Structures are given as structure tokens and as C-alpha cells.
TrEMBL record:
<protein>
    <submittedName>
        <fullName>Myomesin 2a</fullName>
    </submittedName>
</protein>
<dbReference type="InterPro" id="IPR036179">
    <property type="entry name" value="Ig-like_dom_sf"/>
</dbReference>
<feature type="domain" description="Fibronectin type-III">
    <location>
        <begin position="461"/>
        <end position="551"/>
    </location>
</feature>
<dbReference type="InterPro" id="IPR003961">
    <property type="entry name" value="FN3_dom"/>
</dbReference>
<dbReference type="InterPro" id="IPR050964">
    <property type="entry name" value="Striated_Muscle_Regulatory"/>
</dbReference>
<dbReference type="Pfam" id="PF07679">
    <property type="entry name" value="I-set"/>
</dbReference>
<dbReference type="InterPro" id="IPR003598">
    <property type="entry name" value="Ig_sub2"/>
</dbReference>
<feature type="domain" description="Fibronectin type-III">
    <location>
        <begin position="359"/>
        <end position="456"/>
    </location>
</feature>
<dbReference type="InterPro" id="IPR013098">
    <property type="entry name" value="Ig_I-set"/>
</dbReference>
<feature type="domain" description="Ig-like">
    <location>
        <begin position="49"/>
        <end position="86"/>
    </location>
</feature>
<feature type="domain" description="Ig-like">
    <location>
        <begin position="973"/>
        <end position="1059"/>
    </location>
</feature>
<dbReference type="GO" id="GO:0003007">
    <property type="term" value="P:heart morphogenesis"/>
</dbReference>
<feature type="domain" description="Fibronectin type-III">
    <location>
        <begin position="557"/>
        <end position="651"/>
    </location>
</feature>
<feature type="domain" description="Fibronectin type-III">
    <location>
        <begin position="659"/>
        <end position="756"/>
    </location>
</feature>
<feature type="domain" description="Ig-like">
    <location>
        <begin position="760"/>
        <end position="842"/>
    </location>
</feature>
<dbReference type="InterPro" id="IPR007110">
    <property type="entry name" value="Ig-like_dom"/>
</dbReference>
<feature type="domain" description="Ig-like">
    <location>
        <begin position="1172"/>
        <end position="1246"/>
    </location>
</feature>
Length: 1279
């Protein structure tokens, strides 16, 4: 960021002033150091400046920082000066652009936000190779460059955690956050922070919210849009200049309202603003899998309103549209929507507001081509007159002088106008007339003849797409520009996972960038499309497949050089591999040595070391040596390590073993880690018998032993760790003489599993049946290899297992798994951050896997059911089996008594249900035997058998014959339900049956004991059911009942025997209904004494009724007679009616309460010769004497000539009926009452013809009164 000119002079003056003071102080300090050193040490030998590490070429991204490094030696220290294109770099000339540092002898130049220096460069990489040094040597003088920048800020700012590459979706909100340390941290004086997007300084707005404070700088984009995609840079002014951080933000298309619709356009801008005309432009969206875009709609909205108005009636095919007809002085916003065959996209972000206003111009009248249209421009007249003007456009074809008005419907006030109606292959001339309210001007000079030319169209496809590695999640894509650029806007890059054929967009704005968000370890191909106002070009050819991993670089320096053994003339060294391998396998190590008192390094061996141990020969006993090591890979030789400690070349003679080395960590999980090491090179006086492992938390020196007893192998799984905590370990070897020297302390390891960590899975191949261990790595590099071990010893060549690896997957397959293969199997992935896992194959697990393997190698067709049989309705017998799954190519056969069935039976199968069946239509005694089915389905087999002999066969045969007869029976009229009984609510027993397949001619007949029963209502077979009522059921109704149904097609018979248990069931059913209807017990006086009566719907002696005295009853009641009652008969009386399931109980209390004050008897006297009168007499006892009232059919009887009522002596009450007739039949009752209560007695009088029998109900008839004539011969009294 450049300063204002007025502040630059003061800035440089102060910098030079402070710079001179600093130089003087440094000179004096240096002089004092030299003087002190000369007193204690001999003078240094001057050494010419030399580059230990030279500058190298860099490939960097445009607009990203780049750092150049070098290391310089010389005595005294050289002064370093940086140059660019032979011009010295002055940081003051561009504050914030350059930063020069010198730390620990490493000189660096930091270039902030590098830009391409020549505009026609379009290839992505920028090779920075024109920077160089000039070294100046001044004995005894050390000079410093001036400060790189000076800013009013006095704060020291250090960036800590900063935002990385971010992905979002349109409509979402995203925040970019950077944490920093500010010294001093003043709440009211935060650092000065600036945010950039692609070199554009961002200002707070509705689309961008910024905050700084509390050590946090934050940029929030509350409503993401593809316009927000780009490279975001945070620049903070510090005491020493600026601190910067940059990262990309990618914004995906929002889900369209219509499936298949394109994404929204972006970067809507407004140009050429006039009084009633503007030119709107935009950039087209990327269409990776959507249909091509066919056009665009442009909408406008006046500021302060919410209504959008569509500007064009039909879609415009290019990314620019002249919009006229605006209101002068009004402010407008514009937005664009893309259209394809599937629908219309969501609208773009609206443009900034623009005001339609008149613009002065000195341009002469001329024609400008604007894509498929022509725009006419002209200079307004001068002078304009005293009133506002507008313009008329006229045209003529060719050289003719016939002018036609163009803008007939539009009053044009802007000095420009788009022309739409030009025909192909015709030339036109145009002229303009100015008009105001006072009149019109003379026409302008006509333009030269112009002709419509076909537009240039979309650009051609980019060429030679090359993808290269960048980081573990990004790739660098470059290409050659299209041959025909045609006003190129930029490019869209698409990527596809190799083998998937599914492309996804890498950027959503057409600019140049790195492809981020890729999956490490996967392989991708890329393609590019060029973009201009006409749309997208054809896709380029695909790039070569690229494995995603970090870009190649030289490895970092090895470290922690340790001494493993010394015999007096040689030393065995070990060291740790570089923390950064540079994205390539380390191929060799170069060792240098020097004596501790020397400054000259010498090469140890002309041949580099291949492993991380090396024995240095030809050393001098008693001399101290220092060593340094450099690692090399495909990119070259890396930086040297720090010099080792000075090791004395003296032979080791101690009895204890030397140190173990090369401690590594595998299978790192949240609470455990596997520690591995290599045994000591020096074993001491005896063989090594075990190891102790010690651990401590990072930063602590308090080591504790992990194992109480030494382990005999070079690994140990440590559990019980604290998740997220870091630990260090060391190992001590043990022999018979004691515990040896501890190894060097390991690097810290954090007890936390890598993201996406997966474990080894044991399984069985579904095709081959092979047992395998499979592992999927969460991270791999291009040089990664899967190393399998058993008991943590690498499996190199083995006849027991085979190993295959591809991509992220590796599989160990057992050739012929046996108990010999039990043990712990582990796998480690090289060139990763410790990706590894282990699996213990125990005896139980192996047995389970062997069973699965056997089933696959010897497959069977799984059966849901074994072979079974069922009897069908015609007496057919179906043998069937059901498999869980069948293919369409299944083969099978049935075997009966060792003979395969080839014909004679119906055999079929259904693949969808898995059922295979065989049907025997005529099942006879000859079909007894063993039935077997054999199934072959691909490689799978199955067999099932059924033994059908003896009693099992007889039962099947009997059922088959029955079903066959049933089928024949049902061909004519038949019973669908045979005879059964039920009892109605009035206790009538009904025999019922249901009929089927009947017709009008079908006959139905009832029989009892083979005698036909005549019923009142003939049965109707067409109703589908028939019933036979049996009223007043009793023991006399026992017998065999038969129903016969028949016509010309045949007949059917149903038999029902009422006896034994059936009779008891019917009585119980009657008792259930009668017992439920039983009334309370009532007291009735009789000539013999008193009677307890219980009324119910029906009563018969066969019902199980319990009394404790003499009992009797009628069809309507049950009663108990108490003759000549005395006081000893007082008490509770109960009747119990049993229906087989429960008892129905009624109780009466004869305890007294004055009831015995009323005592009466009833005597019925009948004059039988001749029967002309009837006398009803009742003996009444009571004190005081009761009142007597007679009733007939509940109507009081009044004494007259025919009905004579007498009450003699207060004891004998009588009713005499003279000239008895049929009409005198009915219920007669007497009611006697005194102050202690009353009693009521009923009798029934029935008058019948003389000499006739009393009729009884018959079968098939319900009980009903029988009418008689007037000849009276018998009176039946009941009650």
C-alpha cells in the first residue's frame, strides 16, 4: 500500500536519521567485541564471502507471497544486498512490498503479493530467477540496511492461527478469522487492518462486515454470492511494516428452484451511464453438468422500491445488454438470470446503484459494434438551444437517399442508441436529428456505409492442460491460452476423479487460481473452458492423471544424531529422518565429519548412506568428532543437520548393552500408542534379554517405567494415555549384567487418532472363500507403501500369505489358513504421519472365518423350509421346498424311492419366491416311500428329503381321499356348514345349517330317528341356510336328527345326534339364558302351606337346580313347597341354577317381620257334573282381619249375578263364577292386606272342550294358545 506523497519525505527523513544512529551504535558495539576477542583468542583468519546455500528458482502463484532464501559465510560477516534485474531493492520505495530478514545466518527476501510483470502473460506459473545478491566485504565493519517501512502504528503484531482455504454455498454466511498477538494490547487502539479480495480493498457494506479487537480480526460475509469468490488477503500494519495472510474462498451455486437450471450469473456491472440509457454486463456461470445456457434476462429496479421489471422480452445470448427507456435522475439496480432448456436460474447479486444522468461528450458521430448489435454514438449539438433536446435516428439502405425513422416509439435523450434490425449482407448509413419544443435541427452528416458482420463467438478451447502437485489437498493447473481468445474474460476449471466420469466445478468465477479441496491420495484429471461474453468454449482435452500430494521439494534436515557403538577406530551413528520428506522418498544420506577443534568439514564417504545408520571408519582413537548429515530425494539434497555433539572415539567396554535407537510410534489412538524401536548395536557382555520402556509427559523430565518386567521383543503397546496429551519415551536394554544406557528421548507423540482413522477388517471373499485382512488408509502419498508384519516383524516373502495393494487399500490374503497363522498382524503406511493398524487373529476368530470360507468354497443353496407336503382340495398332494434365493438358471430334480421323476407329475418353480414344487394328482398306496429334491444353482447345491411311510403315509392318504370326496360332494348341492345348535333368547333350541351350490329345484328335508319331520314353514334352500326349532326342550327331544339336501346333481346329508354330552351342552345353554332371566324368589300360599317360586324364561327338570326342600316347577317357574310351615322353617332359602360354567343364585328371607301375621290357603273347587259354575276359595288368616280384593287379568272383579264374592267369618274368601265360558279363561288373583302387610296369590284358569286332550307343542312349532269352541267340558287350573 503506497503512502501519500506529502508524508513520504518525512517518512524517509526519519528513517535515515534513526538508521544512522543505529549504525553508529552497531559500529561501537562491534569494535568492543573485536577488542575483547583479541585479548582472549587469536585473531580470526579472514575468509572470503561464499554462498553455502544459493538461491534457487521458484514457481509461485500470482498474488501470493514468495520467500527467497540463501545462506552466506565469510569472516568477518558479509553485508548482504538484494537486487532485482540489476537494480538494488529499496524497501522504502514500496512500503509493504518487500521485507528483508536475517535470522541465524539465513538471509531472506519476502515479496508480498507478487504480480505478473508483463500483461500478455497468461500461463499460470511465474519463474522468479532474476533476483541476485552482491556481497561486500569490509573488515571490522558491520552495516545494517534501513528499516523496511515506517508507519504511525507502534504496535508489534504477530499472526497466529489464520483462516485457511474456505468453501461455502450461495446464501450461506461465512467468517474469515485470524488470531494475533498485539503488543501492547490497547483496547482503544487496535491495529490497522485491511481486507482485500483479488487486490481490491474491501470496505464495510451490507455484503462485508469487519471487526478487530481482542486479538481477533474477523471478516464476515453474511450472504454469500459467487461474486465473493476469490483470494482474500488480510494485511495488518505492524511496527516493522506489514503482516499478511492470504487464502482462497470458494462459493458453490445454490440449489436451483428447477432441477437442471443453470447457476446464477455474477459480477453484474453497469457502464456507459446516460440520461435514459445504460449498458449492463455480467459474467456467465460455469455449466459442468447442466444444459448449455441459451440466453439471459436482465431485470431492473428503482432504488427505494422492491419491484423488479424485466428489461428484455426474449433472452439475450451475450453477456451485455443496452438498456434504454430509463428516467433521467432516477437511481437503478440491475440483476441477471440465466436460461437453459430446463429453466431459469436464481438471480445474480444486484449491481450497485447507478443514476441515469446526462453525460457531456466531444465525440463525433460514429458507429460502434457491440456484439450482435450496433450502437450509434454522437456528440450533442452546440449550442443546444433554450429547451431540453431529444434525438431522432434515421437510416437508409446503401447509397439510396430514402431515409427511414428508426426510433419511432422511443423518445431518445442520450447521445447513443442500439440498432437491432439490420439485415445480413446489407449496408446501411445513419444520421441524427436534434429536436426540442421549438423545432428540429438539420440532420447530421451520415455515417459511412456499414454492414452487419457475424459476431466472433465464443473463444476456442484452451490447449495443453498440465496439472502438477501443489499441496496435499490442492493442485496447480496450467494451460496454453486458446488460439482465438475473442475478448477473453477468464477460465473455468473442472475436475473428475479418475474412473468416475463425474465432473465437478473447481471455480465458480472465471479467474486463475489453484484447485483446492481435493482428497489426498486420490487421482484426478482436469479440463478447462475459456469464457467470454458469448459464453463458454468447448472443453479442453483432459490433463494427464495427477496423484494429489504435496509438491516435490528437497527434504528438511535430519536431526538427533546419536552414537550407537565405537570400537576405537570406527563409530556407528544413527539419526532421525527429516520431518519433511519433500513429497518424495528419501533415497540417500550424505555424511560430513570434522574434528571438534576444526572448522573444516570433510566428506565421510563418496557413497551416500542408504539407511539411517552408518559406520564411519578410519577414525583416530581419542579424538572427538562432530558429524552433520544431509538427506536427498528426487528434488535434490536438502539442508544439512545441526552438527552433532562431539563424540569421543574410544572403544566401548562396558558390560551393559548400549542404547536402543530409532524409536517410532504406530497405531496412535486416543488412549494408546504402539512404541517400536531397534535393538542396540552394542550388546555388552551378554545377549540382550529384554527392554524397559519409560515415558513422561512432554516438557517433563520425570520418567516412569511403563512395564514392571522387561519385554523380550522390540515393541510395546502403551495404554491408558490421556486423550490429546503429548508424551515422550525412552528405551533401556537389559542383559545379564544389568540395565544399559537409555536411548535418546523420542520425539513427542500426541495421543490422538488421525482424522478418518480406520482399522483392519477381517473377512472372507464372497467369490473365492479366501480369508483376508483388509485395510483402508486414511492418508497416502504417491510414494507410500503398505508394510505388513506378523508380531511386528515385516513379512517379506511368505508362502502362507499374499499381499496386494492399490490406492488406499491393501489386502493380506491367507493361502491356506491354519493354526500356524494365529498371531498379531499389523500394517503401516510409509511416507505418512503414522497411518497404521493391527489385528489379532485368535483361535476362535480363525474357526469362525474357516467355517465361512468352507461355506463359500462349498456353497449350498440356503433353504427357508425343508421338503414338505400338503393336501390340496381335490385330493392332490403337493410336495414343495422354499429356498431363500434362486437364480433364473437353477436346476433341480425330484427323486422318489431312488428313481428320478421325469414325467407324470406337475413340477414347477418360482424364482421370485424361491419355491420348487411337485404335485401328485392321484395319490394312492403306491406313492408310499421316500421323497428327495436335489437343487443346483450355479456352484451352490442343496438336498432335502421327506420320509412318508407307515402311520404318516396312512394319515396323508386318508386326508387325500377325504379331500377328493369333499371335492366331489361340492360339485352338487352341499352343506357349507353342517348341523349345529344354538339357543335363542326365549330358550328355544335351534338346529341350523348353511347350504351352498343350490338352485330352485333343490329339496331339503328334516328327519328325527329316520322319521320325517313336518314343519309349519317349509325350508327355503335358496336362502343359504335352514333351521329347525325345538321349543320347550326336554329329555324327550333326544335322538338322531338328519338334514337331507338334494337335486338332480346329487345329494348331501348332515347328521346331528342329541344325546350324552351334546344334550348336556344344550341344557347348560338353556340354563344360562334361563338363569340370567330368573326373577327374585316370591312367596305363594298354598293349601298345603307356603311355596317359594322363581319365575324364568323357561324351566325344565333336566336343568341342574338345587333346593334344600321339596321342589317342583312348571315351564315358567321353579318352586319349593313348605307344608304346614312353623317357626322352625324360618331362615334364608336359596335356589341355584347351574349352566355348566357358573351358578345363578336367588335368595329369600323367611325370618319374620310380621309376615306370619298373614296366613292363607287356597282351595280350588270345581263342580264337575255338570260343569256350569266354578268356585275359587281362599282361607285367610290374619290379625287384624284383612281386606280381600279379587282380580281377573289384573282387573278388579265386582260382585254381580255371574261373579259372586263372599268373605265369611273373616276367614273364608271365595269367588264363584256361574255359567263358565271360554271367555272366563285367564289369570285370577286375590289380594289380602292388613296393617302388617299384604299377600298376592295368582292362579290360571283354562277352559277346554269336554272329552278332549290337553295339546302339547310339537317339533318345528313354537308353543301357542289353542282356541276352543263354546262347548265346555274341562277346566284346567294352574297356580
Amino acid at each position: 500500500m503506497l503512502r501519500a506523497p506529502e508524508g513520504m519525505q518525512e517518512y524517509q527523513r526519519m528513517a535515515a536519521h534513526f538508521g544512522r544512529d543505529l549504525v553508529q551504535l552497531q559500529h561501537e558495539l562491534h569494535r568492543m567485541k573485536v577488542a575483547t576477542k583479541e585479548q582472549d583468542y587469536p585473531a580470526e583468519v579472514p575468509q572470503a564471502p561464499d554462498f553455502l546455500v544459493s538461491l534457487r528458482s521458484h514457481t509461485v502463484w500470482e498474488k501470493t507471497p514468495v520467500k527467497l532464501f540463501c545462506t552466506v559465510s565469510g569472516k568477518p560477516n558479509p553485508i548482504v544486498k538484494w537486487y532485482r534485474n540489476n537494480v538494488a531493492i529499496e524497501p522504502l520505495s514500496a512500503p509493504g512490498k518487500y521485507k528483508i530478514e536475517n535470522k541465524y545466518g539465513v538471509h531472506s527476501l519476502i515479496i508480498s503479493r507478487y504480480n505478473l510483470t508483463h500483461p500478455q502473460f497468461t500461463v499460470r506459473p511465474l519463474i522468479v530467477s532474476s533476483f541476485h545478491f552482491k556481497l561486500h566485504f569490509h573488515k571490522g565493519v558491520l552495516s545494517f540496511p534501513l528499516l523496511s517501512s515506517i508507519h504511525p502504528s507502534k504496535l508489534e503484531v504477530t499472526l497466529l492461527e489464520s483462516f485457511g482455504v474456505t468453501f461455502g454455498t450461495e446464501g450461506e454466511s461465512v467468517s474469515l478469522v485470524a488470531n494475533m498477538v498485539v503488543v501492547p494490547d490497547l483496547p482503544n487502539l487496535p491495529p490497522e487492518v485491511m481486507w482485500y479480495r483479488d487486490d481490491t480493498l474491501l470496505m464495510p457494506s451490507r455484503w462485508a462486515e469487519m471487526s478487530i479487537g481482542g486479538g481477533v480480526a474477523k471478516l464476515t460475509l453474511p450472504h454469500l454470492n459467487k461474486d465473493d469468490e476469490g483470494l482474500y488477503t488480510l494485511r495488518i500494519w505492524t511496527k516493522d511494516g506489514t503482516a499478511e495472510h492470504s487464502a482462497y474462498l470458494f462459493v458453490k451455486d445454490a440449489t436451483p428452484t428447477v432441477a437442471g437450471a443453470p447457476g446464477a450469473p455474477m459480477d453484474v456491472a453497469v457502464f456507459d451511464v446516460n440520461a435514459d440509457y445504460v449498458l449492463v454486463s455480467w459474467k456467465p456461470p460455469n455449466t459442468t453438468h447442466e444444459a448449455p445456457i441459451t440466453g439471459y434476462f436482465v431485470d431492473r429496479r428503482k432504488s427505494g422500491t422492491t419491484d423488479w421489471v424485466q428489461c428484455n422480452d426474449s433472452p439475450v445470448k451475450v453477456c451485455k445488454l443496452p438498456v434504454h427507456g430509463l428516467t433521467e435522475g432516477a437511481s437503478y439496480h440491475f440483476r441477471v438470470r440465466a436460461v437453459n432448456k430446463d429453466g431459469i436460474s436464481l438471480p445474480s447479486r444486484m449491481s450497485s446503484g447507478v443514476t441515469a444522468a446526462e453525460v457531456e461528450s466531444d465525440v463525433e458521430v460514429y458507429i460502434c459494434r457491440c456484439y450482435v448489435k450496433r450502437i450509434i454514438f454522437w456528440a450533442p449539438p452546440s449550442p443546444r438551444g433554450r429547451a431540453p433536446v431529444w434525438y431522432l435516428i434515421e437510416k437508409c439502405e446503401g447509397d439510396s437517399h430514402i431515409w427511414q425513422r428508426v426510433n419511432t416509439a422511443v423518445q431518445l435523450r442520450s447521445p447513443r442508441y442500439p440498432v437491432y434490425d439490420m439485415e445480413d449482407k446489407k449496408s446501411y448509413r445513419f444520421r441524427v436529428i436534434t429536436v426540442n419544443k421549438y423545432g428540429s435541427s438539420e440532420p447530421s452528416e451520415p455515417t459511412a456505409a456499414i454492414q452487419k458482420v457475424d459476431p466472433c463467438g465464443v473463444p476456442s478451447a484452451p490447449r495443453q492442460v498440465i496439472a502438477s502437485r501443489n499441496t496435499k489437498t490442492s493442485a496447480f493447473v496450467q494451460w496454453e491460452p486458446p488460439k482465438h481468445a475473442n475478448n477473453l474474460m477468464g477460465y473455468y476449471v473442472d475436475a473428475s476423479l479418475v474412473g468416475s466420469k463425474k465432473w465437478f466445478p473447481c471455480n465458480h468465477r472465471p479467474y486463475k487460481f489453484v484447485v483446492h479441496g481435493l482428497v489426498p491420495g486420490d487421482t484426478y484429471v482436469f479440463r478447462v473452458q475459456a469464457v467470454n461474453a458469448y459464453g463458454l468454449s468447448e472443453e479442453s482435452q483432459e490433463s494427464a492423471p495427477l496423484f494429489i500430494d504435496a509438491a516435490l521439494s528437497t527434504p528438511s534436515a535430519p536431526y538427533d544424531i546419536s552414537l550407537l557403538n565405537c570400537n576405537g577406530s570406527s563409530m556407528t551413528l544413527a539419526w532421525k529422518r527429516p520431518k519433511n520428506t519433500g513429497g518424495s522418498k528419501i533415497t540417500s544420506y550424505y555424511l560430513d565429519k570434522r574434528e571438534a577443534e576444526s572448522v573444516e568439514w570433510k566428506e565421510v564417504s563418496p557413497s551416500p548412506a542408504v539407511h539411517r545408520t552408518f559406520t564411519v571408519e578410519n577414525l583416530t582413537t581419542g579424538v572427538f568428532y562432530e558429524f552433520k548429515i544431509q538427506a536427498a530425494n528426487l528434488a535434490g539434497v536438502g539442508l544439512p543437520s545441526e552438527p552433532s555433539k562431539a563424540f569421543a572415539c574410544e572403544a566401548w567396554t562396558m558390560a551393559e548393552p548400549g542404547p536402543a535407537y530409532d524409536i517410532s510410534f504406530w497405531e496412535v489412538r486416543d488412549t494408546s500408542v504402539l512404541v517400536q524401536w531397534k535393538p542396540p548395536v552394542y550388546a555388552g557382555a551378554g545377549p540382550i534379554t529384554g527392554y524397559f520402556v519409560d515415558m513422561a509427559k512432554k516438557g517433563s523430565s520425570d520418567f516412569v517405567a511403563v512395564n514392571a518386567e522387561p519385554v523380550g521383543h522390540c515393541y510395546l503397546k502403551v495404554s491408558g494415555l490421556e486423550t490429546g496429551a503429548s508424551y515422550v519415551f525412552r528405551v533401556r536394554a537389559v542383559n545379564a549384567k544389568g540395565v544399559g544406557k537409555a536411548s535418546d528421548v523420542s520425539d513427542p507423540v500426541c495421543a490422538k487418532a488421525l482424522p478418518g482413522t480406520k482399522e483392519i477388517v477381517c473377512g472372507v471373499d464372497e467369490e473365492t472363500g479366501d480369508i483376508f485382512l483388509n485395510f483402508e488408509a486414511c492418508d497416502v502419498s504417491e510414494t507410500s507403501k503398505f508394510t505388513w508384519s506378523k508380531s511386528y516383524k515385516e513379512i517379506t516373502e511368505s508362502s502362507r500369505v499374499s499381499i496386494t495393494s492399490s490406492g488406499r487399500h491393501s489386502k493380506l490374503t491367507f493361502v491356506n489358513a491354519e493354526k500356524e497363522d494365529l498371531g498379531i498382524y499389523s500394517v503401516a503406511v510409509t511416507d505418512t504421519d503414522g497411518v497404521s493398524s493391527s489385528y489379532s487373529v485368535n483361535e476362535e476368530e480363525l474357526k469362525k472365518m474357516l467355517d465361512l470360507s468352507y461355506n463359500i468354497k462349498h456353497p449350498i443353496v440356503p433353504l427357508k423350509t425343508e421338503l414338505n407336503y400338503e393336501i390340496l382340495e381335490k385330493g392332490h398332494v403337493r410336495f414343495w421346498v422354499q429356498a431363500k434365493k434362486l437364480s433364473s438358471s437353477v436346476n433341480y430334480r425330484f427323486i422318489v424311492n431312488d428313481k428320478a421323476i421325469t414325467s407324470g407329475y406337475k413340477i414347477s418353480h418360482d424364482v421370485s419366491t424361491g419355491i420348487i414344487q411337485m404335485t401328485i394328482e392321484h395319490f394312492t398306496k403306491a406313492n408310499e416311500g421316500t421323497y428327495t429334491i436335489q437343487i443346483h444353482d450355479g456352484k451352490a447345491k442343496s438336498q432335502s428329503s421327506l420320509v412318508l411311510v407307515g402311520d404318516a403315509f396312512k394319515a396323508a392318504l386318508k386326508e387325500a381321499e377325504f379331500q377328493r370326496k369333499e371335492h366331489i360332494r361340492k360339485q352338487g348341492p352341499h352343506f357349507s356348514e353342517y348341523l349345529s345348535f344354538h339357543v335363542t333368547d326365549d330358550c328355544t333350541v335351534m338346529l341350523v345349517c348353511k347350504l351352498a351350490n343350490v338352485k330352485k329345484e333343490t329339496r331339503f328335508t328334516w328327519f328325527k330317528d329316520d322319521e320325517e319331520i313336518t314343519v309349519d314353514v317349509p325350508p327355503n334352500p335358496m336362502s343359504g341356510s335352514c333351521s329347525l326349532p325345538i321349543p320347550m326342550f326336554s329329555r324327550k327331544d333326544q335322538g338322531i336328527y338328519k338334514a337331507v339336501l338334494g337335486d338332480d346333481r346329487g345329494k348331501d346329508t348332515s347328521v346331528f345326534e342329541i344325546s350324552g354330552k351334546v344334550f348336556e351342552d344344550i341344557i347348560n345353554a338353556i340354563a344360562s339364558i334361563a338363569g340370567s332371566s330368573a326373577s327374585d324368589l316370591v312367596l305363594q300360599c298354598t293349601p298345603e302351606g307356603i311355596r317359594l317360586q322363581c319365575y324364568m324364561k323357561y324351566y325344565t327338570e333336566e336343568m341342574k337346580t338345587s333346593w334344600f326342600h321339596r321342589i317342583g316347577g312348571t315351564s315358567e317357574m321353579a318352586w319349593m313347597q313348605i307344608c304346614e310351615p312353623t317357626d322352625k322353617e324360618k331362615g334364608h332359602y336359596t335356589i341355584e341354577i347351574h349352566d355348566g360354567k357358573k351358578s345363578h343364585t336367588r335368595t329369600f328371607d323367611l325370618s319374620g317381620q310380621g309376615k306370619w301375621k298373614l296366613d292363607f290357603h287356597l282351595h280350588i273347587l270345581c263342580d264337575l257334573a255338570p260343569l256350569q259354575s266354578l268356585s275359587l276359595t281362599c282361607t285367610v288368616c290374619g290379625d287384624p282381619s284383612p281386606e280381600v280384593t279379587w282380580f281377573k287379568n289384573e282387573q278388579e272383579v265386582v260382585s254381580d249375578d255371574r261373579f259372586k264374592i263372599t268373605f265369611e267369618g273373616g276367614k273364608f274368601a271365595s269367588l264363584t263364577i256361574n255359567n263358565v265360558h271360554v271367555e272366563d279363561s285367564g289369570k285370577y288373583s286375590i289380594n289380602v292386606r292388613n296393617k302388617y302387610g299384604g299377600e298376592f296369590v295368582e292362579i290360571t284358569v283354562s277352559v277346554y272342550k269336554q272329552g278332549g286332550d290337553i295339546p302339547e307343542p310339537k317339533l318345528g312349532q313354537m308353543a301357542k294358545p289353542i282356541s276352543t269352541n263354546q262347548d265346555l267340558s274341562l277346566v284346567q287350573l294352574q297356580g
